[in-house]
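Researcher: Re-running this chain for the archive, since the previous output was lost when a drive failed. Same request as before.
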Amino acid sequence: MNKIAYQLNDIVEMKKGHPCGANAWQIIRLGADIRLKCTNCQRSVLLPRNEFEKKMKKIISQGE
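Model: Regenerated structure tokens:
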């Protein structure tokens, strides 16, 4: 299985967009759950890691 390496502050694209129209999310917390912040409206969502890995499409830009 090919795992994509993601880290804190990466901007990722998800398979489904946010209702505000954006599809870019910033990773703001890593752990058993992953917290994402919408880059457009600044709302945050918390996803279990396995659900996040299924729904993530690609990394748009790397964090620090």
